[in-house]
Amino acid sequence: MCFALILLVRRLVRYIVTPVVVRASKNLLTPLLVWALLAVPNSAPACSVCFGDPDSPMTKGAVAGVYVMIGFISFVLLGISGTACFWMVRCRRIALTQPTSRTNL
Fold it and tell me: What pTM was estimated for this model as a whole?
């Protein structure tokens, strides 16, 4: 069951998703680049934390906030990758316990 599902997803990506993405990227690339160049401001001033004292409580709080956000993002990404690994191991165990009968899709 898992093997058939993987083959189905591969075929969908190869024959449906990939041509659509290639066509869209060719049609949208030039206007997107022009828009990106026009939207960039001439100068982007830094925030007040960057101009301030590096030892001020505001700067230390901003740095601590960045570390907290990195911790949250790392925790979520580790959870997602752990779930994917669990599903991969589970799929292999199921494939080993079922009789080997392949059907062509």
Answer: 0.45
